[in-house]
Specification:
With about 160 residues, this protein is α/β, with parallel strands linked by helices. Helices cover about 45% and strands about 20% of the residues. The chain is built from six helices and five strands; from the N terminus they run βαβββααβααα. A five-stranded mixed β-sheet has the order 4-3-2-1-5, sandwiched between helices. Helix 2 runs antiparallel to helix 3. The longest helix has 18 residues. It is globular and about 40 Å long.
């Protein structure tokens, strides 16, 4: 299961009733919130690796579009960052269906808030550029490493 953990604010905006997710492999768990730049964006942060991913073009109550866009654009972003296509496909195959629940990790929320602060007043041509910039920072919860490197190592360790 691919666990998408919405903040209370996003649950209300998307008009979604969360389910109880229980224990989920942190590699397949993402915390999600709204990010207000010039317009509304949705920020995803992976629980294990703190990989950040941002999408735009989602309005309130467009849950289906959010899920579809998350999967398709994350695949594209990971390919652009040099991850192996076979690892990405295996990740999404193993992840399976998306389930939506509530946030459950204050550390991940803290990292997400930090990324949101870094994003304020930044100009980028594409959300992928902003993601790459945010994923080049080092973060304490992942032993002062860059999220993209940690995510890549996790996929290589799992699927090689």
């Amino acid at each position: 299961m691919l666990a998408i953990r919405f903040t209370q604010k996003l649950l209300k905006d998307m008009k979604v009733s969360p389910v109880e997710l229980g224990a989920v492999d942190p590699l397949f768990s993402w915390h999600v919130n709204m990010l207000q730049l010039k317009r509304k964006h949705i920020i995803f942060v992976n629980d294990l690796t703190r990989l950040c991913f941002i999408i735009d073009g989602i309005r309130s109550s467009q849950l289906g579009k959010l899920q579809e866009k998350f999967k398709s654009e994350l695949k594209e972003y990971l390919l652009l960052q040099g991850l192996k296509k076979s690892h990405i496909e295996q990740y999404f195959f193993e992840a399976g269906e998306i389930s939506i629940g509530r946030t459950n990790d204050k550390s991940v929320l803290g990292t997400m808030n930090e990324m949101s602060l870094y994003s304020k007043n930044k100009e980028f041509d594409h959300t992928f550029d902003l993601c790459a910039w945010l994923n080049s920072f080092i973060y304490k919860p992942i032993d002062y490493e860059e999220p993209m490197k940690v995510f890549k190592k996790a996929l290589e360790g799992k699927y090689s």
